[in-house]
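Changelog-adjacent note: as of this version, every example in the card shows the full chain rather than a window. The one below runs 598 residues end to end.
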Amino acid sequence: MYGWMGTILRVNLSTGAITKEKLDENLARDYIGARGLASKTLYDELPPRTDPFDPANLLIFAAGPLTGTAATSASRYNVVTKSPLTGAIAASNSGGYLPAEIRYAGYDMIIVEGRSEEPVYLWIKDDQVEIRSAKAMWGKGTRETDALIRDETDDEAKIISIGIAGEKLVRFAGVINDRERAAGRSGVGAVMGSKNLKAVAVRGTGGIKIKDGAAFREAVLRNLAKIKSGPVTGEGLPTYGTAILVNVINSHGILPTNNFQLGEFAGAEAISGETLTRDLLVRNRGCLACPIGCGRVTEINWEGNRERGEGPEYESIWALGAACGISDLELITKVNFLCNEYGMDPITLGATVACAMELFAEGVLTVEETGMPLHFGDGQGLLELTRKTAMREGFGDVLAEGSARLAEKYGRPELSMSSKKQEYPAYDPRGSQGIGLGYATSNRGGCHVRGYTIGAEIVAAAVDPLTSAGKAKLLIDVQDFTCVVDSVGMCLFTTFSLGVDDVLPLLNAATGVDYTTESLLQAGERIWNLERLFNLREGLGREDDSLAPRLLQEPLPAGPAKGNVVELESMLNEYYQLRGWDNEGRPTGEKLQALGLG
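Full-length structure tokens:
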């Protein structure tokens, strides 16, 4: 095969069996790779209604046919499983250098099933695969785990690992690779912990076969020029990273503050990308084959010691900052470092703490339950709760379940800012209608990277963010194309400058498959519908395509979007119709037949 490696590695931790399977060429063509191919595998193999922590749940690490090639920013892979946070499908995306290493070792996917009796890690060096004891790493943070495993294996190995949060089955534990990069959302790290799998270490020395090298190089150079000349990819992200959005989003009145009670944060400038660049930035960092370099290597002076790490990114700054009313950038950065070390999603962490702060302000929570006062703006409280949550210690054991279960436990479910039990990111949809529909319909729960209409509504100002008209069609187009980008193995940030007709020649030249614009987007649509079928099978439906009541009923109190709520119902009806789904959000027989899902 060209583009694809042609081999799937399967490891059963219950039996110790290690097998290699040939990749089905028809499935590869129809589902592309990474997110698409792994989601298809999960759908086909996972028994319906399996508990996410059951050994039968699959944990799939999957790269795309462009991952590890010279294609611009083709450095991504997906971690796919059934989410312990949502009960829905989870496909968490990360970059760095590890994704390419999986391919250089000769694999398109690594499927892990079963559960080991004791802590283990996988050591993969090309075609040699071992299950090794991880007793020495259990209880360690991700950085120390990375170092210990490379000492035991190969200093050039790339490591996927979980921290203490994954071991403790924190429902929003993430998977960390390359020491700092995170497949952070939906609790994929908790599933890894439930299998007693501490890490996967990979060293690959092979290459990737490209069908038409000349055409591939030409496409790479064209795309590289577009990336470098784009205002976002060539200037904004390289200079300030994703945190450039703090002031931009705040100026539009949609930077969610104090658990989405407000859309403007008075301390925005203090936590902005401009301030981070001036005060904390050491240098920027890029993933493999990435000219953008949006990653931030930062350094803080914490309790008399210099600490260096990566981040925080925009979403982390918001969740640990404005969402909790905190404007101390050094403290936010420290908590972000801890999230990387513990292997924990900072978005859900911050949003869950913000929910707890509002519950405390309402008198629902007391010091007796929490062990400490919880006030908006209390950075030291957030710091302490971060540790307690990762350890499942005291009130942290409640926070480790996420905001939906927290709010439900105390009788105020409406105070969880989430859909399908996954917390929203850093955009108040009352001032950006498209992203509101995106949160509601996202197959993995509240999420922005499944349908980033913010690009058109706010960044490019191409459409009016306050109107619901046309947003269903806009969102569907973005969702389907995002499926393609995630599945080929490219970074979503390239879509600020590249479109489907830029990805198409890369994929065709690499694989030799004669995709057209229409067939490639149809593959994206197929993947989206397959994920929907998975969720329907697991018991999710129209009632789950909703938003927190606050966003539907409480108008924004101030700012440019003052007086707005999300006009969800009309957008959702149009969305279902355009998707070819019935009124309950189920794909019709005609739609399934058209997509080859019948």
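Structural remarks: The chain has three domains: 7-203, 231-422, 427-496+516-594.
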